């Protein structure tokens, strides 16, 4: 399988009309479970909703054993809670879980909403075109995450740059990701040691856990750095995917402005219909397991194809249709032990973005033909490369506005 599948056409990407558009090349058809060989191992791909739920909560599949085979592993990767099994997973998640709770995310909602309004207000003042991902989605999600974690404002830009450097481009070699991780780890370590402008929030709590002997120094710095891996990028991509779903249906943003109670269900439907996440975290079987009549042997790899799982016709009526008021039971945040720790924050971020856009730019539209939009699908993420959009402060499109810079005339970043 190619690591990254690319293409053009925003409508095709948003609608996910076939498996290639949903989960990339090299994925065989088959429901609810199929297999292939990758890197000399058999890998099972789970496509059914009930089968995915069963797999994701089954403790006979190990994340930690598989993670240990990946090399090179940096100091933050070695402390990533996503790569642990219980009981270590339970211990570390307990340390950080409170900061990502539904209660904490709700406390942050007003901050995120204000940040969204401020970013959007600046874009509207600057002119009727922008790349919504670079100028709105990405700064919003990183700002929200930094606030939740307690990153001092003086440190945010440097850590954002290192976090993005660690992400790299889709399909970046492991060696490049490793080098990026080392730089991110150095930056976070310096923040933790700063006594003149110390961190707050969860970062301060982790420092105190180190002082009290709960974490040793390598655990402190590694765990803190791991919290900047890809949550902000996945949330940014999810906002963009959600906005594309909405503006592809004329009048829908305006409907949400008039009916704000629909925003939550619209966001959940976008999470189901066009998630930014792709494969679940791959696990390795530690003993023989039967799943959907498939005999999975010890050492086999297993992963769930979440965008396909989310369109299981046994669970969703007319699953290929976007329904703004659907009560979606998607698995985009996973299930079981490794349910996404940042799910509550991500929901607040996407909902705040949609509310701000529906109020301030209800007639938002693409600034380029939808066929010009490009996208990539990797095992970890489904994302647009850019989302050029157009608006005016009144929300009424004005193509004759001579102050507007044409998107294609903008200088390259």
TrEMBL record:
Function in brief: Involved in the coupling of aromatic side chains of the heptapeptide of vancomycin.
Q: Which InterPro entries match?
A: Cyt_P450 (IPR001128), Cyt_P450_B (IPR002397), Cyt_P450_CS (IPR017972), Cyt_P450_sf (IPR036396)
**Pathway listed for it?**
Antibiotic biosynthesis; vancomycin biosynthesis
- The superkingdom listed in its UniProt entry is Bacteria
What is the protein's species of origin? Answer: Amycolatopsis azurea DSM 43854
GO MF? heme binding; iron ion binding; monooxygenase activity; oxidoreductase activity, acting on paired donors, with incorporation or reduction of molecular oxygen
Matches recorded under PROSITE patterns: CYTOCHROME_P450 (PS00086)
Record keywords: Heme, Iron, Metal-binding, Monooxygenase, Oxidoreductase
Q: What is this protein called?
A: Cytochrome P450
The family line of this record is: Belongs to the cytochrome P450 family.
